[in-house]
Automatic annotation (TrEMBL):
InterPro entries assigned: Kinase-like_dom_sf, Pkinase_fungal, Tyr_kinase_AS
PROSITE patterns in UniProt: PROTEIN_KINASE_TYR
Coiled coil segments of this chain: none
Descriptive protein name: Fungal-type protein kinase domain-containing protein
GO MF, one example: protein kinase activity
Originating species: Coemansia erecta
Length: 303
């Protein structure tokens, strides 16, 4: 069956002899699969990078520097506008896809890959990478409801004349994950692409139905990867009422300006979608409220 575009086996009754055989057969088949057959994302790889840490005892001044190996991810981010790919090394996982069924949104704090053996030791150039698998009712690359499209509109509106009384999510890279399935042609990672591997065509969900009547009935989903700045923190990091008022007021100014200047209505205001940004990452510095997550946004006047 197909569960949210991820292939899984039919139910196995492991309490019965026939189930034992099916389970062993499944494990053997998995062990002989290549990583792409198991659904691994070739555009996201585990890597070991050298980082620097300071010892906490025995040294003078700032302590002695020691090299430490850290396991992180190198993520390739393709930009649909420029047809260019930029690579980043993750520093922190904000949201992990911890559900084994289906594809879920993941978010990372990352820095650009550099030429010095992929060393990532500081906060310069930090960005947020959002790796998502949202449904769409339009052509994948021309979806007017795509978060990428909204962030491009916001960027183009404020790039030449930045607002002085609020900050906004700045799009760095926005595109769809592309897979090389036959070593010749690249294709966008979508639900239809998964079905193509099975030799079965996907069927749209019947109108008014939330659940699939059969495994062939699935929403069309597209694998999108967005790189943004600045990096914010949970609204729970606010220290007092004064900071709360400052953050909420700035987020409200951003929301109002996006409506008036960009014609974009957010439609999903919540404590999860308002972040705190402090200048230079300093807890005592000026703070801002950052409105994020335009998955449910619409263009005003658009149905």
């Amino acid at each position: 069956m197909l569960n949210d575009s991820v292939l899984v086996s039919l139910p196995i009754k492991i309490s019965e002899a026939s189930g034992h055989k099916e389970l062993v057969s499944l494990l053997v088949n998995w062990s002989t699969c290549s990583t792409d057959q198991l659904g691994y994302d070739p555009a996201m790889r585990h890597v070991t990078v050298n980082t620097s840490s300071r010892s906490t005892g025995g040294g003078m001044g700032d302590g002695n520097r020691t090299d430490v190996d850290a396991i992180r991810c190198e993520i390739d981010c393709f930009d649909d506008e420029t047809d260019e790919t930029r690579s980043y090394i993750t520093r922190q996982t904000i949201i992990s896809a911890d559900n084994i069924f289906g594809r879920h949104t993941r978010c990372f704090v990352a820095v650009p890959v550099r030429d010095d053996n992929k060393t990532a030791t500081d906060h310069l150039g930090e960005v947020v990478i959002k790796d998502a698998w949202p449904p769409t009712e339009h052509a994948v690359l021309d979806d007017p409801r795509s978060e990428i499209q909204f962030l491009r509109t916001i960027r183009d509106t404020y790039e030449k004349c930045p607002p002085k009384d609020f900050i906004y999510p700045k799009l760095v890279v926005g595109g769809h994950v592309r897979l090389d399935s036959d070593n010749v042609h690249e294709s966008v990672d979508t639900t239809d692409g998964v079905f193509k591997l099975t030799g079965v065509e996907r069927a749209d969900l019947p109108p008014g139905m939330d659940r699939s009547p059969s495994w062939q009935h699935q929403l069309l989903c597209a694998h999108r990867r967005i790189v943004m700045s600045p990096v914010g923190h949970s609204i729970k990091t606010i220290k007092n009422e004064e900071e709360l008022i400052i953050v909420l007021a700035e987020a409200m100014r951003c929301h109002s300006s996006l409506v008036n200047d960009c014609g974009i209505l957010h439609r999903d205001i919540s404590t999860n979608n308002i972040l705190v940004v402090r200048d230079n990452g300093d807890s005592s510095a000026t703070l801002h409220g950052l409105l994020i997550d335009f998955d449910f946004a619409i263009k005003i006047g658009q149905k």
